[in-house]
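Sample entry follows:

:::
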Amino acid sequence: MNKETNSDALLQKLEKLSSAPESITDQELSDWTNDTEMEDAFQTMLLTKRALLEEQYSEDLSRQAFKEFVDRHQTKRSIVIATLWKTTVLVAAACLAGWLFLPSLLQKTPTINPANIIYQASYDSDCVVISDGQQEITTLQLAEQPTVAKGAPVLKGDTIVYLPAVTNKYPVNTSTIRIPQGQTVKLILADGTKVWLNTQSNLIYPNIFPSKGPRVVELEGEAYFEVARNEKQPFIVKCGNMQTTVLGTSFNIRNYPETPATVTLVNGSVKVANTNEQVTLQPCQQATLGSSGHIYTSQADLESVLCWRDGQFFFDGKTLRQVLYEMGRWYNRDVIINNYAHLEDRLHFRGERSWKLHEIIESLNIICDIDLTINNGALVLN
């Protein structure tokens, strides 16, 4: 019997245990008691009970988690005696079914102090939304549109594109694109400028740029720009108290509430200014707006800055606090701190944004020697 077939057989036994444990015969119990693979699966499942229950008790996720665990598990444990085995079977079945009336096994949910929540998840929308002030449209609706007018967005693969249009023939509208947590989007503006928008970001932009004067957009969150060169019309990104002006270049802007606003130049040249001063960046330089309003420049680690665009987490010398912000934002989870001892520890961590949250948690717990868990959907540091 191959590994996949064997896993399916174990799952069938689990389904019987969870749906009708009273129907188990003495012979089946005897057979399962002497089945080391069956015993091993249940013992392992008990050890990972928290991991199965933390995904909000979803049956599909519990089944998937168990199947993956059975597939990769190889260590054999000793056979337990029949009475203990019968208890183990019933407890494991209860865990799989998500029976929450087992107070002796499940810890009570602790009272959460609102002051300990350092990041608040958002559940306003789970899809990309574009609004022009009169109507809202999602990427799903874009995909269903049979025809698209000039100056309107169209979905091409995984990219939203604005078709070029002449301003005196088509109306100019100001649009806002909102990126929900856990997603990124590539947007091509009407002038050909390419914008990669990170999770929980908003960009305000015109559907058609004017024929004269600067091209102006406003950003909240993070975005990477590849600006179409036009020496007669500079491209300006307004971001909080900073303004970045370019002719044609590639750069990254980050402006989330918990960190100082930064502009990182990849190539070309940009001017970064606020009401007090202006600096010109060269490639691989970064401008950071300090709390005093002063703009500081430094050398940038481009790999660390741009990893999000390539679907990765990369934290080189970042604090655990900064990492937890990123985890909360990407996985759309509240972040609750009950233990501040390691919050400012710096770490080196690399991972894929496609990883499941429990995989990230396991890695961080090992790297930082911390107790990071999921409790009632929130990411909790104990």
